[in-house]
Amino acid sequence: MFSPPAPLPETDTEDASETDLAKHDEEDYVEMKEQMYQDKLASLKRQLQQLQEGTLQEYQKRMKKLDQQYKERIRNAELFLQLETEQVERNYIKEKKAAVKEFEDKKVELKENLIAELEEKKKMIENEKLTMELTGDSMEVKPIMTRKLRRRPNDPVPIPDKRRKPAPAQLNYLLTDEQIMEDLRTLNKSCKCWFPPASPSSPEHLPATPAESPAQRFEARIEDGKLYYDKRWYHKSQAIYLESKDNQKLSCVISSVGANEIWVRKTSDSTKMRIYLGQLQRGLFVIRRRSAA
To answer: How confident is the model at residue 102 (pLDDT cuts 50, 70, 90)?
Structure first.
């Protein structure tokens, strides 16, 4: 008969148990790691699917934030555009008003300059024409003397010229009859050497009535932009007193000196007046100096 096998030692049994346990734990760890990988992979695939569908919570949260930022930037841009547009419109209106005002001022200035220039030319022409009339120079065209030949028997009868005759030149006087007669008497006095002495029965030797006595004359002329009046020189921006025939005394300042006239500005209301040399020479206006203070 066989005898039973002898029992193993206790130390060998414990080593075998520990080895089996270590193998079992390693398998569990590998299996658990595999399971975690699969779970994580499945979660990522699920998130990818939700992202593609647009239902991912994180995606929606970030999209909402981006949308808010987009709307805020759009609103700021519109506000900036509105402010810039209003500023440009205000500048446009301001520039337009300035251009219109400058245009109106230039138009008024041009009109005044042209009127003053035409008035000066008109007065010069009238003075020249009046001088020619007073000195005896006629502006009428004298007919040319033609020699008339005797008509032959076979020549046709000449047809008379029916052209309209030129109208005689007219002279418009800007002075009154009394002022014209006064100037004529003054010219006759200063130019007696031009004419032969009149006979005792002529009107020049008759006694003049008090109404026909010449008025006081003043020396007045303009040279180099300055006025020489009553043995004194007056210039632009000089303070003066202007006295008229009705004893009205005005405080004025000479604003400009022209060729045949001066412009004065009243200090009371800043209105301007034009005074001609003829008016100063006849004593219609009298100029006196005054202090500028």
So the answer is: very high
| pLDDT of 12 higher than 60 | no
The answer to whether the beta carbons of residues 228 and 277 sit under 8 Å apart is no
CA 10 to chain centre: 123
Instruction: Calculate mean pLDDT across residues 169-192.
Output: 64
Q: Containing H/E element for 35? A: helix 10-53
Token pair 């040279």 in the structure block, residue? 223
- pLDDT confidence bin for 200, thresholds 50/70/90: very low
Reported as a single tens digit per residue, the pLDDT across 115-132 is 999 999 999 998 888 888
* Residue matched to tokens 């009339």: 133
pLDDT reading at 153 higher than 80: no
Give strand pairing partners of 243: 249, 286
Distances (CA, A) of 34 to 41, 42, 110: 10, 12, 102
- Sign, CA dihedral 278-283-289-293, equals negative
Kindly provide the b/e burial profile for residues 144-175, where b requires at least 16 CB atoms within 10 angstroms of the residue's own CB.
eeeeeeeeeeeeeeeeeeeeeeeeeeeeeeee
**Which pLDDT score is estimated for 113?**
92
In the chain, DSSP assigns E strands to 220-223, 226-229, 232-234, 239-244, 249-257, 261-266, 272-276, 285-289
Residue 187: count other Cβ atoms within 10 Å of its Cβ: 14
Containing H/E element for 184? helix 177-190
* Paired tokens of 35: 């399971």
Burial class from Cβ neighbours inside 10 Å (0-12, 13-18, 19+) for residue 129 reads middle
What pTM, to 2 d.p., does this model score?
A: 0.29
From CA 1, how far away is CA 8, in angstroms rounded? 22
Is 84's pLDDT higher than 90?
yes
